[in-house]
Protein: NAD-dependent epimerase/dehydratase
Organism: Salinispora tropica
Amino acid sequence: MSGEPPLVSVLGASGYLGSVVTARLAQLPIRLRAASRRRSSVPEQAVAEVEVCTGDLTEPECLADVVAGADVIFHLGKHSGGWRDADTPEGERVNVGIVRDLIEILGQRPPTRTTPLVVFAATTLQVGQPPQRPMDGSEPDRPETAYGRQKLTAERLLKAATAASVLRGVSLRLPTVFGQSSLSRVTDQGVVVTMARRALAGQPLTMWHDGTVRRDLVYIEDAADAFLAAMRFPDALTGRHWLVGSGRPDTLGAVFRLVASSVAAQTGEPTVPVISVPAPDHAPVIDFQSMQIDPTPFQRVSGWCARTELGEAVHRTVAALLDRNDRF
């Protein structure tokens, strides 16, 4: 119908990233379709016209219903086992199969329709061994994990479909996304929240190294805003992958000490120590490698930048855990 607001479908809307992206989108004058295996929650005071869909997105019929008529599709789903457990048929089916099915479904649309925009959540693990310099997206891809290989395969499928005018694909490669947001009840399962829980329990924070390993950490709300920025500037971004990052590589030792001090400040308890311990035999090599990102290319095109300071993001995360009484 002419004049209708654009229809935006979110795949993986109930997930950690998807729930925050969905909450942001709900405040826009759009038609919003939030799709996932579990029922998604949306703000009660939403501006958007919201439709919540539940189902298995690995089933082509379900996926076709979810993206029917969509002008923009955010593909934020991933195998629930995480990147360490992706080397399974289930991991491949979610991380690659959904993209393959999506391309086939969109390829069957009438040619008169506007070519849909697909914004894909990719990963910096697609590069593999991180270079010594900050990554800017020009690096060769030599992934060393199953998850990185699967995401790279999916990204290449989207690029080929873009070249064939089936869709307009934009891939955002994410580093470590962390933290809790008031926009979502979905809990971060990453290292920052793990350490915050340990500190809340009065336990020391342990590192498998001397604390000088660096990571580019992006607060969850900033990561969500990057996807909305991609929706606003599709023409300049289509057909390529872009690195999203804070541009501020923090040492994990400093991050853990910040977590410990934030917990102490908000609870009144003594600051727990941050200590180095021997690494277990199963520790992956990537845990000892520093990764730095130069997000300038994406920033120049989209105007996006990570606006939340690390200290503020950690403070919000600890406050959210305390509010939920989530200490363990």
Q: What stands out?
A: The chain has two domains: 7-177+217-243, 180-216+248-323.
